[in-house]
Amino acid sequence: MVSAAFAARPQKKLVLFDVDNTLTLARQSVTTEMMDLLRALRSKMVVGVVGGSDFAKVSGQLSLPRAKAIDEFDYVFGENGLTAYKLGQELPTESFIKYIGEERYKVLANFILHYIADIDIPIKRGTFIEFRNGMINVSPIGRNATIQERLDFQEYDRQHGIRAAFVKVLQEKFSDYGLTFSVGGQISFDVFPHGWDKTFCLKHVADEQFEEIFFFGDNTHKGGNDHEIYEDPRTIGHTVQNPAHTAKLLKEMFDL
Ligand code: M1P
Q1: Which of 32, 74, 107, 176 has the highest CB neighbour count under 10 A?
Q2: Exposed/middle/buried for 194, CB within 10 Å: 0-12, 13-18, 19+?
Q3: pLDDT at residue number 62
Q4: At 85, which helix (H) or strand (E)?
Q5: Are 22 and 224 in contact (CB under 8 A)?
Q6: pLDDT for the residue numbered 201
């Protein structure tokens, strides 16, 4: 039984979307065309987003001048669901620092910062560790990189495997920490407890007992941050190449 909150939707189904390269270009804003399509979908069923980024970034990318993301989507999940909103109301959740503890976190953060100090890459900017509610995000170039610097790093990383090598070292060194290292974007990787991947957000929707849950994401390959939710038996996963591909599939699948 779907709750009264969604009683007006003709179909008791949920459609969940990744953000970067699924609804928007990487780190860019949603277009009005995409929002119009999502509104049409929302008149038929329940619609949510699940980003790896923190809530402020997810919300910033998916808000238009007079339309805030938390009003436009039934569910907005940042940090894989470690920050969660349902119909504009925040839901209770968990915290990375409580899970890991201050002492163990300090050892991890110090190691990461030393490692980054020793990496020889063409340029470095600032904010090498972003501390979030449900994870940390680690970037060898730093999160203050511009769009062009991001693209340059992404290409450099593709050739030199900077992030893959970093993750391998962390997996070995901190094997007893129970952490997952997930490469989801262009310049960084996310670090969170096992199981706090995008499947985490499914806990927040379980009470609604949707007949079907669709998921659309671009990073669905093994090691990508959409992989677990894409593969999860509770969802029907679809891989997309970019926002235009998402729009095409939505029109075909849901008769929009
Ligand atoms: O949503 C995918 C990823 O987006 C950003 O990655 P990057 O800055 O490397 O492009 C980050 O917010 C990351 O946490 C997130 O998983």
Answers
A1: 74
A2: exposed
A3: 96
A4: strand 83-86
A5: no
A6: 98
Pocket test for ligand 1, best of 80, 188, 189, 196 (most atoms within 8 A of CB): 188
Non-local CB neighbours of 148 within 8 Å, separated by 6+ positions? none
- Which residue ranges in the chain fall short of pLDDT 50? none
Q: Reply yes or no on whether 36 is catalytic.
A: no
Annotated active-site residue 207? The verdict is no
Q: Angle at Cα 224 formed by Cα 219 and Cα 227, nearest 5°?
A: 80
Residues 89 and 212 in one domain: yes
* Percent above pLDDT 70 for the chain: 99
The answer to whether residue 12 sits within a structural domain is yes
Q: How far is the CA of 185 from the centre of ligand 1 (A)?
A: 4
Confidence (pLDDT) at 212: 98
Are residues 102 and 36 located together in one domain of the fold? Answer: no
pLDDT at 94: 92
- Report how far ligand 1's centroid is from the alpha carbon of 189 (Å): 7
**What pLDDT does residue 1 have?**
60
- The last residue of one of the domains, among 170, 193, 216, is 193
Task: Tokens for 112, please give them.
Answer: 């990461």
The conformation of residue 226, written as its DSSP 8-state character, comes to T
* H or E element at residue 70: helix 69-72
Q: Which two tokens stand for residue 190?
A: 């996310």
Is this model's pTM higher than 0.85 or not?
A: yes
pLDDT at 92: 92
